[in-house]
Amino acid sequence: MRSNRLRGCLVVTALFTGTSIASAEDTDKTPDDKTAPDKVAQAEPQAEPPQTPTSPQAEPAPQTPGAPLPDEQLRKMVDEQVAKALKPKGPYLVFAGGGYARAGVGLAARGGKQVCFNLPGADTHWRLGNECDYVIEPQFTGRLVELEDKSNWGVIVMPGLYRSMEDPNGADKTFFSNLPAEFRQLYFFGENIPQLLHGKIWGGRRYYDRLHLDINDQFLEIEDSDGAGIEDMQVGVGKLSVAFLMNPNSEAVQIANPTVGGPTISSANVAPFKLTARLTDIATVPNGALQLWTAFYGSSTSKDQSSVGADVPKPANLFRFAAYHTLGKILGGSNLVGAKVEIGSNHLLWRAVIQEQMLFNNGHTSFDVIGEFRSNRNRANSDADWVTDNWASIGARADTQLSGPFRFLLEAGLDHVFPGTDGLDDPQLIKTTACLAINAGTEPGSRPSIRIFYTHAFWNDATAALYALGAGGNRLSQVYGDKTNGGSFGIQAEAWW
To answer: Per the domain annotation, does 220 fall within a domain?
Structure first.
């Protein structure tokens, strides 16, 4: 009886779905309009995996004529019919899978506007309740063509806005009355191409080669640029990606004017470029994978034929190599360990990082820890002395559900800079934040999230001396330039999709 009832419901559902969609299509079309465009902004269909031949043993047994179909086979038939009926015909637009936004307001505990605390010389800062900026980045994906070989072709467009709360309100930045935006990404792509080992080809301007640490919003790898490449080709041991990247604008490179006191020259004679490659998803131990990242930074130069006496410098070449290993199912979360090195004739940087993400309480509580050390050595030329700038950081965030959508977050982080200057203390900053949040869900990553926070920071005299010179930003200098601790409180909203 239960099987017959299920079978009847599935059949009715299939007939109703097909009839409804057919009626809708007939309503949209008229005898005089046979080229009406298809609907847009429909749900993106799930990508289908490459088809492989099935063995004879895997084929279903033939059905006796007139015998009822098994439930699983009936479900499969209904799913196929519904998928065919719902599948868009022609180009369609998707608003999903890449958007991000955050914004907030706050006050300094001493009075005045919210102050954010960062350590001069550090690569990043602990960001919970410590972000003095706006970010709005909605992403739109236009699916244009799907071929019989299952490859998909389209375009991605992302308008975006980034605004620091200390940005000047110039003639080109009317922040008081609106939110001026620019195009952050605009590139064409083809994906799941059999001839490229089921990889992806792309060309345009995009966010590229990004490897992110979440709770301090740091990019261990980032190569946003104009260019073109082939991505995620399945080469057996992993997925291979290669790209050529450069900024095509002459204004990106300025050279000195041979006329004393003259303005710098926007030069087309210097063309820096990058060749990047990465090999990801290299299986190691169970639930473990290795990633290898490499790049060559070079340039093409020529003599300036229009400005007599102009010196066109040849930038030094740079090589970059990094390795990161991820391990899943560790205390309910994952672990990342990585190392990176950059080598040039006048530049040497190396970095080591570890991140541990843990989940408890059936996924309703998270605890994240990050530790990092970076050494950076530079010199002006081969005859100059090396200048060393080292930085160490460690911190953690706990995020737990209180009841329903209500959550409590606590974050603390320590940053320490080693400038290598004898006789002087090293700059140091300790930042703490307590936060109450309302999330659209019961998990730590549920978004949107609206937070009420209080942040307090402590720093030593060496850091205070830098703040007094404005190294930490105008706000920090103006509000806490004579102190070695301070706080801010406010409200922030964040979402991704």
So the answer is: yes
